[in-house]
Specification:
eight-stranded mixed barrel, 1 helix, 9 strands, globular
Length: 214
């Protein structure tokens, strides 16, 4: 989405990626996941700016999945999320665009749509002049369900398998964007300690989920 910038006044945002976009501004409350709901992952040695092309050329026909359809709504009952979705593209520096406000969340349109084979990416602010759409993302647990409504009317349901905290300088690019032969979803926001010197959270919180019901 043209004109969306990653560093917004008082914006504490999600993301990741192809580089890792930062979170800026003073948070209302630092968001730090606590075990066992989220665990700190080991640092990754993956290069920070890969080509984010999650489509795989080797996909078993039996893997449950849907065709392409743009996601329009995200619901995560366990943490009270019910949000429309905006499209997020890439900025000129190779990092992912971010939503302009605390709401709504955004889907990265350079990857699969939720329900297709491969990793679908949804990012959102943790904080922006108050709690953002993913303020409680760190409270998700394995087994919690995520429902995505798509433009074609389908509503694939995903089951959370893991929630982890990753240092931004060791963002697990391959783990998040890499090729997979099934339909998976990644929800991304900021977390960990807030660095008042840089105006950013130090980490990213990532919830990993897999397709439960096509």
């Amino acid at each position: 989405m043209a004109g969306v910038v990653a560093l917004l006044a008082s914006a504490c945002l999600a993301v990741a990626s192809l580089g890792v976009a930062g979170c800026s501004g003073q948070p209302s409350t630092p968001v730090t996941p606590t075990a066992p709901t989220a665990t700190r992952a080991e640092p990754s040695t993956t290069a920070p700016r890969p080509n984010p092309t999650p489509a795989s050329t080797t996909r078993p026909a039996e893997a449950p999945h849907l065709g392409k359809s743009v996601p329009v709504r995200l619901q995560v009952g366990a943490i009270g999320v019910d949000s429309t979705l905006m499209n997020l593209g890439l900025r000129s520096d190779g990092t992912m665009e971010v939503p302009a406000g605390g709401f709504p969340a955004g889907w990265y349109n350079g990857g699969p749509t939720p329900g297709e084979l491969g990793p679908a990416i949804i990012a959102g602010h943790v904080d922006m002049l108050g709690p953002g759409v993913f303020y409680k993302l760190h409270l998700l647990k394995a087994g919690d369900q995520v429902t995505v409504t798509r433009a074609d009317g389908s509503k694939p349901v995903f089951r959370v398998t893991r929630v982890a905290l990753f240092a931004k300088n060791a963002f697990p690019t391959q783990l998040v964007y890499g090729n997979v032969n099934r339909s998976v979803l990644r929800l991304i926001t900021c977390g960990g300690s807030f660095n008042s010197q840089t105006g950013h959270y130090e980490d990213n919180i990532i919830a990993f989920a897999e397709l439960l019901t096509p």
